[in-house]
Amino acid sequence: MWKFISKIIFKVSGWKIEGDSHIGLKKAVVIAAPHTSNWDFIYARAAFFLLGLPVKYTIKREWTDNKVFGGLLKRLGAIGIDRRPKGMRDDQKLSMVEAMANLYKENDEMMIMITPEGTRKYVEKWKSGFYRLAEMAEVPIALGYLDFERKRAGIHSVYHPTGNYDQDLEEIMSFYRTVKGKHPELGVK
């Protein structure tokens, strides 16, 4: 059903999928960038359905446990994160990255979509959580994108972290400088 709805969204709005949907991975951190608009979620979610990639996204567990919205959110790929798993004291908490890394360890297949900017506003520097997650979970980073100027979406390539964050980030961002978000002035410079 979601793939059908995604086809309609792309057809009506004139968007197209680019590139190969067979990236050959069962596990990856999937960047969804640039993130400059609320529309990004709709187009990214639709693109991953059309690509046939089982991409998920994380939200607070309270949302997925919600009786009204929880079922819909889960069908759209939401995974509820509990940063205080059973057995931990009230004063203990996992970081979001640690909680997400546990998902990779607990599942044979796991692709989690992350917006490294952490906001729709312009930021000079991305948050490092996506990279730390890839390192901690020992998975590659898939460079997903939404190019509003060309109305194209896809996975550009797969990047394997080298451990040199600054160098790797520069290589990753060099691609995203070529991609125009809905509000290009808020994208990667």
Rg over alpha carbons: 16 Å
Structural class: alpha/beta
Count the beta strands.
7
Mean pLDDT: 86
Q: Enumerate the strands of the largest sheet in spatial order, edge to edge or round the barrel.
A: 1-7-6-2-5-3-4
The secondary-structure element order is: HEEHEHHEHEHEEH
Shape: globular
Low-confidence stretches: none
Main sheet properties: 7 strands, mixed
Helical proportion, percent range:
25-40%
Q: How much beta, percentage-wise? A: 15-25%
Q: What count of helical segments does DSSP give?
A: 7
Gap from first CA to last CA: 37 Å
Organism: Persicobacter diffluens
Domain Phospholipid/glycerol acyltransferase: 29-146
Protein name: 1-acyl-sn-glycerol-3-phosphate acyltransferase
Keywords: Acyltransferase, Transferase
Q: SSE layout and pairings?
A:
Elements: H1 2-13, E1 16-18, E2 27-33, H2 39-51, E3 55-60, H3 61-64, H4 70-75, E4 78-81, H5 96-106, E5 110-114, H6 129-137, E6 141-147, E7 152-159, H7 165-176
